C-alpha cells in the first residue's frame, strides 16, 4: 500500500521599517539515505535578491544556506 503526502510550509514576516536579514539555514529536505522517495520538491524564497548554497552536514543531511545581501525596504 502506498501513501502519498503533500506538505506546504509558508512563513511570512512583516516589519514597519527597513531591516537587515542575517544568514539563514534551512533544513527542509529528507536525508539522502532515506528510502522514502520524493516526487517533487520546490523552494521559493522572497525577496529574490538572495544567494543559495546547498550543503550537507557530517551525517549527509541537506542544508540550505541563504544570504540576503541588502537591507529590505518597507512596503
TrEMBL record:
Task: Indicate the segments forming the Bacterial transglutaminase-like N-terminal domain, all copies.
Answer: 7-71
At the top level, the lineage of the source is Bacteria
Identify one Pfam family in the record: Bact_transglu_N
For this protein, the parts annotated as crossing the membrane are none
Family annotation (PANTHER family)? BLR5614 PROTEIN-RELATED, SLL1233 PROTEIN
Protein name per its UniProtKB record: Bacterial transglutaminase-like N-terminal domain-containing protein
Natural source organism: Catenovulum maritimum
